[in-house]
Write a structure and sequence with these properties.
The protein is α+β, with helices and mostly antiparallel strands. 16% of the residues lie in helices and 12% in strands.
Length: 64
């Protein structure tokens, strides 16, 4: 949330009609499905790890 691009992200969401709240994450947040919350993680504390390619876009909601 200290990243200079953070405000641009918030502005873009608002400009695209997204009614969401960005909240700082600490690693033990509850599920926010259908609550309009986007958790923002500090990438220095929570570094990005790429998933296996076969799991990259798997969400378990589509049959087959």
């Amino acid at each position: 949330m200290r990243n200079p691009l953070y405000e641009k992200l918030r502005e873009s969401a608002k400009a695209n009609g997204m009614n969401v709240t960005f909240m700082q994450a600490f690693g033990d947040e509850p599920d926010s499905l259908n609550k309009g919350v986007i958790w923002v993680y500090d990438s220095e504390i929570f570094p990005f790890y790429q998933a296996e390619v076969y799991n990259q876009f798997k969400d378990g909601t589509k049959p087959g």
